[in-house]
Design goal:
The complex is a heterodimer of chains A (225) and B (463). Chain A is mainly α and 225 residues long. Chain A has helices at residues 3-32, 41-52, 75-78, 81-89, 91-94, 107-121, 147-154, 184-192, 211-222; strands at 60-61, 64-65, 162-163, 166-167. In chain A, the strands form two sheets. A two-stranded antiparallel ribbon of chain A has the order 1-2. Chain A has a two-stranded antiparallel ribbon with strand order 3-4. Chain B has a two-stranded antiparallel ribbon with strand order 1-2. In chain B, 58% of the residues are buried. Classes of the chains: A mainly alpha (225), B mainly alpha (463).
């Protein structure tokens, strides 16, 4: 191949692939609006707050960012909105060991950010992040589950709480929660309205559950020693 | 060795700015590494430190590439730079603008509320990775790059010797400048925001920058061992052609999971899997040319050039291809595996490229015939061994993270603070090793040509 032929291959080949890329870009732009809910003023304000505090300097979102703090794509599915708002405004007031500093978000900014993150969670991401393969099987080990254990799973308690290393770290660890001297009655009361027994709790109330379910769950919790 | 055209010496301004920022980048990098273990260790939070770490990287590499271009274009065009005062103005304006941006980042780090919204955009930090620079700074950067491109184009126009090397170099720089523009507008929609953001990031590092690397590789092989231009330029066209044939549609590997249509899985997976091919070709090119060498005029320069070709392939190519398929990437996306790839790719592809260019051109700029290469080699081994181990520890951390967080469903924070702790400690230690290497290099940069020539050579000459 002569130098001139190699040069022409480079120029026209690159142009060819760039034109295809442009075509695909146009098509993608046309599809994007249909792959997520409509953007309200609040969501837009939330995105501005996301940028103002340089959140991406620690977190990832849609998997892109700094890998220093949790991914925010599905965070609203794992944490209740009330918890998120309280955490955003004062992380260590909610979770003393949190690595996140207090950035001075206003109540309005926190609301907007939660709206933005809720919008993000509804994007069609082609199934990302995938559901963990092993989580469903962990902790059962062939034994039939008690009713309390089942409720613990159904209610998604492990999104925030951790038992034997499985689960989140937003709420207190429950591996030995039964050893703290609280009885079934206390736990039922706490589950129905956490702030009635722990004044500054960020946990949402589970008042909608039936009394039987609450008792079964509380009975399970006191066995954890 | 001496420069043919006095104005080529302007390259040294840019090199000096680059190596100082390199040192800054690595020092803040170590702070960031320690913050993985103790987040509260420093007055600035991790996000500000990380912004400084990656922005210092981008700016010093660009400054180094600009300096290299100021050296290469007069040499290729066989004439002085069109306007030396303009080049100096462009240099000092760039330094001024970058200083303002950095002060803004630090101010925002100390008081997040200072990053207020002015005319619909953030005043100090745009909060978008790599292109955090606020809109007013974007405008200044564009002006600086336009002045630079204009000056280079006018230099070429003077003699109209359109060599392949400088043609491809200028094309790469023009492409680089154009690809900064898609990052300069606000989009309400986060999907569109990230879509255009990847145009900047991907089409820089896996597009225009690799084109520039291809052109400079040919130039350096020509200068260090006197390889034939005809052959070098032919392979250069093939290499940079393949870079763009695979790299442009390879952008698709960033569009798997951000809300963009699923057809990107096929396009991104196929084309990005081919991205290592041109990089392997560059390695082969470097070895083939070197084997034929009879007359090596600049051994450290050649040494770094070949090392650049190898680590470009290992870091950008191999460490990229392991997680580029959508089937794999759905598990590794957003984990430390990406961080590991980022570190080795930037080190191999661009850090070593700029250092190579410095060693190839600096002796002529300083007007020295010979210099002691011991520190150049010492710096290389300290930097490279440290970087390889940094990358291995982060890769290990990434594998643990993928298994425990993504497959087992453990909490992110639990994995980071307990199971990965040793990786963070080792990474910080190797970071210090890297800093030692960089310090040796920076010292060598300032001392080169200012000491008496090596004793051994002088005796040879006497004999």
């Amino acid at each position: 191949m002569s130098n001139k032929a190699a040069r022409n291959l480079f120029i026209f080949g690159s142009l060819f692939f760039f034109v295809i890329f442009l075509g695909l870009t146009v098509d993608t732009m046309n599809q994007i609006d249909g792959r997520a809910p409509e953007i309200t003023k609040e969501i837009d304000a939330g995105k501005m707050a996301w940028q103002k505090y340089d959140c991406i300097g620690c977190h990832t979102i849609l998997g892109n960012g700094s890998y220093f703090a949790p991914d925010m794509t599905k965070v609203v599915e794992r944490k209740p909105a009330g918890y998120l708002k309280q955490f955003l405004m004062d992380p260590r007031g909610v979770k003393p060991k949190a690595a996140m500093p207090k950035l001075g978000l206003t109540s309005q900014e926190a609301n907007d950010l939660v709206a933005f993150l809720t919008w993000i969670s509804k994007i069609d991401t082609n199934g990302w992040p995938p559901k963990p393969i092993l989580a469903a099987a962990a902790g059962v080990a062939g034994k039939p589950q008690s009713r309390g254990q089942q409720i613990y799973q159904e209610q998604g308690c492990s999104a925030c709480h951790n038992i034997n290393g499985i689960g989140g770290t937003s709420g207190p660890e429950l591996t030995r929660v039964g050893a703290n001297g609280k009885d079934v009655e206390w736990h039922v009361k706490h589950l129905k309205d956490p702030r009635s027994v722990v004044p500054d709790s960020a946990m949402p109330p589970y008042a909608g559950m039936s009394d039987d379910d609450l008792k079964s769950l509380a009975a399970y919790l006191v066995t954890l020693k | 060795m001496t420069v043919k055209y006095q104005s080529q010496k302007i390259a040294q301004y840019f090199y000096t700015f680059a190596v100082i920022l390199f040192l800054v980048q690595v020092v803040v990098g170590i702070i960031a590494a320690i913050q993985f273990i103790r987040p509260d260790i420093f007055i600035l939070n991790f996000n500000t430190i990380r912004t400084l770490h990656i922005n210092a990287l981008v700016v010093w590499l660009l400054a180094g590439l600009m300096g290299a271009t100021y050296y290469v274009v007069p040499e290729e065009s066989e004439t002085e730079v069109w306007s030396l005062p303009l080049a100096k103005l462009q240099f000092w304006a760039t330094v001024g603008a970058i200083t303002l941006v950095v002060l803004g980042y630090i101010w925002m780090g100390l008081d997040p509320q200072a990053n207020s919204t002015v005319m619909g955009t953030q005043l100090l930090n745009e909060g978008r990775e790599y292109i955090e620079a606020p809109r007013w700074a974007d405008a200044l950067i564009v002006v600086s790059v336009l002045l630079f491109l204009f000056n280079m184009f006018m230099t070429m126009w003077k003699t109209k010797k359109w060599t392949g090397i400088q043609g491809v170099l200028l094309f790469g720089l023009l492409f680089l400048a154009l690809m900064y523009l898609p990052g300069m507008f606000y989009s309400k929609n986060m999907i569109k925001d990230q879509f255009w953001w990847w145009w900047v990031i991907h089409l820089w590092v896996e597009g225009s920058w690799e084109v520039i690397a291809g052109a400079l590789l040919a130039f350096m092989l020509m200068k260090t061992i006197g390889a034939k231009r005809e052959v070098l330029e032919k392979w250069m066209y093939i290499e940079v052609g393949l870079v763009l044939f695979t790299g442009i549609l390879g952008t698709g590997h960033h569009y798997y999971f951000i809300g963009t249509p699923k057809y990107w899985h096929w396009i991104g997976g196929f084309f990005s899997s081919l991205e290592p091919v041109p990089l392997l070709l560059m390695v082969w090119d470097a070895f083939r040319t070197t084997r034929e060498a009879r007359n090596v005029t600049n051994k450290p320069g050649l040494f770094y050039t070949v090392a650049h070709a190898i680590f470009n392939f290992v870091g950008a190519g191999l460490w990229g291809i392991i997680h580029t398929l959508p089937q794999v990437n759905q598990w590794t996306h957003g984990t430390q595996i990406t961080t590991a790839h980022g570190h080795l790719a930037f080190y191999g592809a661009y850090v070593l490229l700029v250092i190579s260019m410095i060693y190839v051109t600096l002796p002529a700029i300083r007007g020295v015939k010979d210099y002691n290469p011991a520190r150049a080699y010492l710096a290389f081994w300290w930097m490279t061994i440290s970087m390889v181990f940094i990358v291995l520890t982060i890769t290990g951390a990434g594998m643990v993270q993928v298994y425990m967080e993504r497959l087992m469903g453990l909490d992110y924070v639990a994995v980071k603070t307990t199971y990965n702790l040793w990786f963070w400690i080792l990474r910080a230690i190797f970071g210090v090793g890297f800093l030692i290497g960089v310090s040796i290099f920076v010292y060598d940069f300032f001392m080169l040509g200012k000491e008496p020539a090596p004793a051994l050579r002088t005796e040879e000459q006497k004999a």
